[in-house]
Specification:
Strand content: 15-25%
Oligomer: single chain
Number of helices: 15
CATH topology: Rossmann fold
CATH class: Alpha Beta
Number of strands: 7
Helix content: 40-55%
Radius of gyration: 19 Å
Mean pLDDT: 93
CATH superfamily: Vaccinia Virus protein VP39
Length: 299
Amino acid sequence: MLEDIFSKVNASKTKEQVSNWSDSINACNDWLRKTIELSPERDNALIIGVGQADDFSLPLIVDEFKNVYLLDIDSKALDVAYCKLDISRRQKVKLVPCDITGLSERIVELYNIMNDGTSPDKIKRKFELFRDQLPKRFKPVNFNIPGCSWIFSNCITTQFLSPVIMQINPNDQEQSEIYKIATHISHRILAPYLRLIETMLKRKGILAYSTDVFKIDSDTKNIIERTSGLSIKSLAKNPLQIVKLTEKLTICIAGWNAVKACSQYKIDRLQVKGLFDSWLWNFDDKKQYIVLAYAFEKN
């Protein structure tokens, strides 16, 4: 099950690792406060991809809204996040263990064929079929959330297909075409996701959208610094330069660009409100991520 894959990822984080995230948590919290100020009402809030709430302040959000819905495919992670709250805050929170895509079985199928000896040609055809059969709008099961004035999409869009993409070697000649299709899927999958959010937001409701854009490791650091002309630390503080850099480099993480998806797939009611921000996420001792964040308003 896809839940099991993500559950292993969430459970693998150590306290020491999370303790090194303080700078990125503070940056994220500052940005979240600004997006909450834009919210027309303080009734219902939804956090999609909450995980264990390790990378932002959950109490900050709970204190601002009457009802807060926590959604994640990993029910164990939801329980961890919930237990971090004191009893008074828990009364305002509802847990929604849910695969918001409704595609988990098909994603697991792709994951399995990458590891069972299936030929590259058959794998490629499976990926193409998956791409061509993507729904216009996600229809998650057991999903009953009222209209929201504020929704936080917490770096989830680059993770929808990550268990599969991590199995592909883009430098392998036979797998390179599969990788191209997978990255295309990661972008196209934004359309049904954003259409679902569009229906869930009240008029003038705010979508706070954060996404990891670049992974910084021993293979990518020099390329990014050389191309941008900036150090990683300087680049991470400059959201406009980050966006420009994505136009020059193909190593940006697939599935990050919701602004492009809204325009390309005519999701017209979600309009960029601004509040561009960015920060460096020191994930562990081997890699970092550059995170880009901005807000949409439903018109």
